[in-house]
Design brief:
By secondary structure, the chain is an alpha/beta fold. The radius of gyration is 18 Å and the shape is globular. Strands 1, 2, 3, 4, 5, 6 and 7 form a 7-stranded mixed β-sheet that branches. A 5-stranded mixed β-sheet has the order 9-8-10-11-12. It folds into 2 domains: 159 residues, no CATH class; 113 residues, no CATH class.
Length: 281
C-alpha cells in the first residue's frame, strides 16, 4: 500500500494519507474534463517550479490551467470545478528501508475532509526524496504528456480507471522492439552500464545518450522513440524500491512499467532482467 505524506508548507503539519487515494468514478472523470487544473507551485523550490511551469505551458492541453501557491490549495481542493497537479511525498508499508519517493499527482477536487479521499486521476513516481530536481526536471514534459493522455483515455472509457493502474500499460511491451530506447548511463544497473554490455543484453535498438538528447526527443516529439524514466535511491544504496518506466516521445504513451526491491543481486537501475522481459514479447 502506498502512504502519501504531503509536505505543503502552507499547513501547520505534514498531511498523512493512510492509503492510496481512490480512483475516480465516471462522474468525477467528467468533472475533471471540465475543470480548471491548478498547478500547485512548491514553496522554496524554484527549480521544480520552473520546470513544471515550462512543461505545462508547452505540453498541457487537456484542460485550462492556473498556477497557484500552496496556500491556495486548501481553499480550492474541495471544489470539483478544480483539479490539481501537485507533488506528494510517498512511502510504502512493505519497504523496510522506510524510504520516501516524490510522486507527481493529478487529483480531482472533492468536498472531503481528508486529502487521501480526493480522486486520483493519475500518479507517477517522479524522484527519490531528496534527489536534486535537476535529475528529473528534463523529463517532466514527457511525464505530464503521459498523464494527460491517461486522463483522456479513462474519460473515453471509465472502465479502465483502476485496471492494474500503471502496469496496465505493459500491454504495449510487444511494440517496444520496433522502437529506439534512449537511456542515461546513470539510470542503468552496473551489469549493463556500458554500450557493449547493454547491446549484448538487448538485441534491439537502444542507446546511451545525454540528457540533452533526451530533452530534444521529447521537445521534437520524436516518433518511434522511447525514453527511460528511472526512480531510485541512487548508486551505492542497497535497499528501497527502484521504479522503471518507458515513455513514448512521439505519442506520450507508456510502454513499460516495473519496480523491484533493491538488494545485492538487484541493484538500483534498469536490470538485465528488464531487457529480457522486453525481448520476450
Amino acid at each position: 500500500m502506498r502512504n502519501i505524506i504531503t509536505a505543503l508548507i502552507a499547513f501547520a503539519f505534514p498531511l498523512i494519507m493512510a492509503a492510496q487515494s481512490p480512483f475516480p468514478d465516471s462522474e468525477e472523470i467528467k468533472q475533471f474534463m471540465s475543470s480548471t487544473t491548478c498547478v500547485v507551485l512548491e514553496n522554496g523550490n524554484p527549480v521544480y517550479n520552473t520546470y513544471i511551469t515550462n512543461a505545462v505551458k508547452e505540453f498541457w492541453t487537456v484542460t485550462p490551467v492556473e498556477f497557484i501557491k500552496t496556500s491556495d490549495f486548501d481553499l480550492r481542493r474541495k471544489d470539483p470545478a478544480y483539479s490539481f497537479i501537485m507533488l506528494t511525498e510517498t512511502n510504502f508499508e512493505k519497504d523496510k528501508s522506510a524510504s520516501s519517493y516524490n510522486y507527481i499527482n493529478l487529483l480531482q477536487g472533492k468536498n472531503v475532509e481528508e486529502l487521501g479521499k480526493m480522486p486520483e486521476i493519475c500518479a507517477v513516481p517522479l524522484s527519490f526524496s531528496g534527489e536534486d530536481d535537476l535529475e528529473y526536471g528534463y523529463k517532466l514534459a514527457a511525464i505530464l504528456s503521459f498523464m494527460q493522455n491517461h486522463a483522456r483515455m479513462i474519460s473515453g472509457n471509465p472502465s479502465l480507471t483502476g485496471r492494474r493502474y500503471l502496469r496496465f500499460y505493459n500491454k504495449n511491451i510487444p511494440e517496444v522492439k520496433s522502437m529506439k530506447i534512449l537511456v542515461r548511463k546513470e539510470d542503468l544497473s552496473p551489469a549493463i552500464n556500458s554500450l557493449d554490455a547493454l547491446r549484448s543484453a538487448y538485441k534491439y535498438s537502444i542507446d546511451i545518450v545525454s540528457e540533452e538528447v533526451i530533452m530534444k526527443a521529447i521537445r521534437d516529439k520524436a516518433k518511434n522513440t522511447l525514453v527511460l524514466h528511472k526512480v531510485g535511491p541512487g548508486e551505492g544504496k542497497s535497499s528501497g524500491y527502484c521504479f522503471k518506466m518507458l515513455f513514448g516521445t512521439g505519442d506520450s504513451d507508456m510502454y513499460y512499467y516495473n519496480q523491484h526491491t533493491i538488494d545485492r543481486n538487484n541493484p538500483d537501475g534498469l536490470l538485465p532482467a528488464d531487457l529480457k522481459r522486453l525481448e520476450r514479447f
